[in-house]
Design a protein that fits this description.
One of its GO terms (biological process) is sulfate assimilation. The chain is α+β, with helices and mostly antiparallel strands. It has helices spanning about 25-50, 65-85, 95-100, 105-120, 140-150, 170-175, 260-270, 280-290, 310-320, 355-365, and strands at about 55-60, 65, 90, 160-165, 180-185, 190-200, 210-220, 225, 235, 250, 275, 295, 325, 345-350. The protein has two domains: about 15-235, Fructose-1,6-Bisphosphatase, subunit A, domain 1 (Fructose-1,6-Bisphosphatase, Chain A, domain 1); about 245-365, D-Maltodextrin-Binding Protein, domain 2, CATH 3.40.190.80. About 30% of the residues lie in helices and about 20% in strands. It is globular and about 55 Å long. Bound molecules: 3'-phosphate-adenosine-5'-phosphate sulfate and magnesium ion (3 copies).
């Protein structure tokens, strides 16, 4: 039976009967987050099928942003506000370009898409007993403000969410991998990570089989994969690899991660399998389920600072599946410095058995000394 809920997307303990209410830590955040990411996955998949050329902008850093990115951030932000109104959000996108007259056509399209997603009946795979039903349409001003609630500066204390509404926008535009990414941090420690991958095969051994899955992890509660088409949860544990049996998971874009440094590291480790190149944090989900043994993100030397929304959800997936995530010098990722990872230099994520050997190889390949 569907649990009646007062207001839209409102998730309070009052909304649950004692039989459906889970007492685990962050249970409400997990349920709301899964629903928001599912809705955003449905929104972005449908945008891809209808996207037209003038629905993509180029941002100041030359990276693309589409109507799908803005609409998905608006949708997730509205859902978070309804259930956790006090929580600040560090989101990738902001609405400045949409508030000016030149942004009118794009703005109207984004409002239409976000509202369609807000009022849609239960999306495929949502658990009816969660009681997270369709909401009411919002005004243009409310949705622009929802996007801009992602402007929080971050920091070391308190609760905060990160949203990357489309991670791997270039992959999204190519029709390849992308991910809808959400995380909750408390005092700069990731406690919940959710990554929705609409184009990812549910089973890597069946690349032509069913596509679309969500990865979710709560600190201390393991990492699970759920198909977008349903809600059967499979717990993931990273298998034990030896260094030479690894294969690397890397960015498609050579500007985001140095392919040549990764090749050198792979040859030092004796890796013979070719790298698996894939856009977005789908790589972290693949690592957690054992599709490759090593996520490598080696800096390209342009002084780029990694963004917290690009790594917080993925890092907890891998840790909860039994792996280790550090920067390329062995330093833990610091999510408490603001919107970026500050002085962290690249990312190395791998199983416990091989992580130290990989850091040694990185040191040999780059001449930098590991800090731990
Ligand atoms: N120069 C540079 N170096 C490192 N990283 C960068 C750089 N420029 C952008 N970005 C960020 O990369 C995000 C895309 O993730 P990936 O690199 O894993 O995927 S991809 O294969 O490159 O598309 C991408 O995330 P989205 O903007 O959400 O797509 C960016 O935040
Ligand atoms: Mg982007
Ligand atoms: Mg991103
Ligand atoms: Mg993005």
């Amino acid at each position: 039976m569907r649990i009646p809920v007062r207001g839209i997307f409102t998730l309070t303990t009052r909304s649950y009967s004692s039989t459906t209410m889970s007492t685990s830590q962050f249970a409400l955040e997990r349920q709301l987050g899964l629903s928001a990411v599912r809705r955003a996955c449905a929104l972005t998949s449908s945008v891809f099928n209808k996207l037209i050329k003038n629905e993509t902008l180029t941002k100041g850093d030359k990276s693309p942003v589409t109507v799908g990115d803005y609409a998905a951030q608006a949708l997730i932000s509205v859902m978070l506000k309804n259930s956790f109104p006090q929580d600040p959000i560090v989101g990738e996108e902001d609405a400045a370009e949409l508030r000016v007259e030149e942004g009118r056509v794009l703005r109207e399209r984004i409002i239409e898409l976000a509202n369609e997603a807000l009022v849609a009946p239960f999306v495929e795979g949502d658990k009816p007993e969660w009681g997270i039903g369709p909401g009411q349409a919002k005004t243009s001003a409310e949705l622009l403000d929802a996007i801009d609630r992602g402007n929080y500066d971050g920091g070391r204390t308190g609760r905060m969410w990160t949203i990357d509404p489309i991670d791997g926008t270039k992959g999204f535009l190519r029709g390849e991998q992308y991910a809808v990414c959400l995380s909750l941090l408390v005092d700069a420690r990731v406690q919940l990570g959710i990554i929705g991958c609409p184009n990812l095969p549910v089973d890597a051994t069946k690349p032509d089989g069913e596509r679309g899955c969500i990865f979710v992890a709560v600190r201390g509660q393991g990492c699970q994969q759920i198909p977008l088409s349903g809600y059967t949860e499979t717990t993931l544990r990273m298998p034990a690899f030896t260094p030479s049996s690894l294969n690397t998971l890397e960015s498609v874009e050579a500007l985001h991660s140095s392919h040549s440094t990764a090749d050198t590291i792979a040859s030092i480790l004796g890796i013979t399998r070719p790298p698996l190149r894939m856009d977005s944090q789908a790589k972290y989900g693949c690592l957690a389920r054992g599709d490759g043994g090593l996520y490598l993100r080696m800096p390209t030397g342009v002084g780029y600072r990694e963004k917290i929304w690009d790594h917080a959800p993925g890092a907890i997936l891998v840790e909860e599946a039994g792996g280790i995530v550090t920067d390329s010098r062995g330093v833990p990722l610091d999510f408490g410095l603001g919107r970026t990872l500050g002085e962290n230099f690249g990312v190395v994520a791998a199983g416990k058995e091989v992580h130290a050997a990989v850091l040694d190889a990185v040191q040999q390949a780059t001449g930098t000394k590991a800090k731990v």
